[in-house]
Amino acid sequence: MTAQVIKGKELAHKLREEMAEEVTQLKEKGIIPHLTVIILGDDPASKSYVNGKKKASAETGISSDIIEMPLSASEQELLDKIDILNNDDHVHGILVQLPLPEHINEQHIIEAISPDKDVDGFHPSSIGKMLTGNDTFLPCTPLGILTMLQSYGIQIEGKHAVIIGRSNIVGKPVGQLLLNEHATVTYCHSRTKDMTAFTKSADILIVAMGKPNVIRSEHIKEGSAIIDVGINRKDDGKLTGDVDFQSVSEKASYITPVPKGVGPMTITMLLQNTIKAAKGLSGVGR
């Protein structure tokens, strides 16, 4: 068996073409979806990621801007900036690039963003609606993973999904989204004993550990679908995931590559949420 590669980059491109058409239609109604990203400091990785969001926005016709603040900016200064954006009718989506410096309470910032503009899907209101299966902004990486599974016709209902990792950004919400789709969900983490017993029973295995190539063929079930969320840089500068792609692809039925897998879908879902916000705030409906 050789696994079918879930080509996140190609799927993202297709979805962005569809979004561009929708944005064109919104502009004909006088609605220009706009995303504002706030970044503190000049960390090269964060700046590169933020610039990638701006480029992707432009590809779909979404207006965007980046607000750069010094790393030394106070929590109150950041809250004041968010308040201005919350009250700006031209801004539909607000995203604060994480992580934030230690002197700023991340949760305070997340909660300060209007739920109507929470395109990251991290506001407690958004999380609560996700838990209860109501319409809301869903976190971008988990939504991207769900979209990939659905686009490739991978059955979720009744299947055993195992999530390795319990972060608020990926692990917890992706498990909830799969539960909402009627999967049986198991979470594994650093305190889990005999993790292989769980991974070998998974029909769908989602790996978000941040450790290169730790999942190998002996850890998975024959014919399972493997989603690799990990991004690790090797000594030679190349990127690799948490899954040993070569060995696992010989046993799984589906697998995502790193790079060009989950990453492009994350940004694409951010664009989708921004369009959704523009429609909701403009009275067009979500």
UniProtKB/TrEMBL annotation:
<feature type="domain" description="Tetrahydrofolate dehydrogenase/cyclohydrolase NAD(P)-binding">
    <location>
        <begin position="139"/>
        <end position="279"/>
    </location>
</feature>
<dbReference type="GO" id="GO:0035999">
    <property type="term" value="P:tetrahydrofolate interconversion"/>
</dbReference>
<feature type="binding site">
    <location>
        <begin position="165"/>
        <end position="167"/>
    </location>
    <ligand>
        <name>NADP(+)</name>
    </ligand>
</feature>
<feature type="domain" description="Tetrahydrofolate dehydrogenase/cyclohydrolase catalytic">
    <location>
        <begin position="6"/>
        <end position="120"/>
    </location>
</feature>
<dbReference type="GO" id="GO:0005829">
    <property type="term" value="C:cytosol"/>
</dbReference>
<keyword id="KW-0511">Multifunctional enzyme</keyword>
<dbReference type="GO" id="GO:0004477">
    <property type="term" value="F:methenyltetrahydrofolate cyclohydrolase activity"/>
</dbReference>
<comment type="similarity">
    <text>Belongs to the tetrahydrofolate dehydrogenase/cyclohydrolase family.</text>
</comment>
<dbReference type="InterPro" id="IPR020867">
    <property type="entry name" value="THF_DH/CycHdrlase_CS"/>
</dbReference>
<comment type="subunit">
    <text>Homodimer.</text>
</comment>
<keyword id="KW-0378">Hydrolase</keyword>
<comment type="pathway">
    <text>One-carbon metabolism; tetrahydrofolate interconversion.</text>
</comment>
<dbReference type="InterPro" id="IPR046346">
    <property type="entry name" value="Aminoacid_DH-like_N_sf"/>
</dbReference>
<dbReference type="InterPro" id="IPR000672">
    <property type="entry name" value="THF_DH/CycHdrlase"/>
</dbReference>
<dbReference type="InterPro" id="IPR020630">
    <property type="entry name" value="THF_DH/CycHdrlase_cat_dom"/>
</dbReference>
<protein>
    <recommendedName>
        <fullName>Bifunctional protein FolD</fullName>
        <ecNumber>1.5.1.5</ecNumber>
        <ecNumber>3.5.4.9</ecNumber>
    </recommendedName>
</protein>
<dbReference type="Pfam" id="PF02882">
    <property type="entry name" value="THF_DHG_CYH_C"/>
</dbReference>
<dbReference type="GO" id="GO:0006164">
    <property type="term" value="P:purine nucleotide biosynthetic process"/>
</dbReference>
<keyword id="KW-0658">Purine biosynthesis</keyword>
<dbReference type="InterPro" id="IPR036291">
    <property type="entry name" value="NAD(P)-bd_dom_sf"/>
</dbReference>
<keyword id="KW-0521">NADP</keyword>
<keyword id="KW-0554">One-carbon metabolism</keyword>
<dbReference type="InterPro" id="IPR020631">
    <property type="entry name" value="THF_DH/CycHdrlase_NAD-bd_dom"/>
</dbReference>
<keyword id="KW-0486">Methionine biosynthesis</keyword>
<dbReference type="Pfam" id="PF00763">
    <property type="entry name" value="THF_DHG_CYH"/>
</dbReference>
<dbReference type="GO" id="GO:0004488">
    <property type="term" value="F:methylenetetrahydrofolate dehydrogenase (NADP+) activity"/>
</dbReference>
<feature type="binding site">
    <location>
        <position position="231"/>
    </location>
    <ligand>
        <name>NADP(+)</name>
    </ligand>
</feature>
<keyword id="KW-0560">Oxidoreductase</keyword>
<dbReference type="GO" id="GO:0009086">
    <property type="term" value="P:methionine biosynthetic process"/>
</dbReference>
<dbReference type="GO" id="GO:0000105">
    <property type="term" value="P:L-histidine biosynthetic process"/>
</dbReference>
<comment type="function">
    <text>Catalyzes the oxidation of 5,10-methylenetetrahydrofolate to 5,10-methenyltetrahydrofolate and then the hydrolysis of 5,10-methenyltetrahydrofolate to 10-formyltetrahydrofolate.</text>
</comment>
<keyword id="KW-0368">Histidine biosynthesis</keyword>
<keyword id="KW-0028">Amino-acid biosynthesis</keyword>
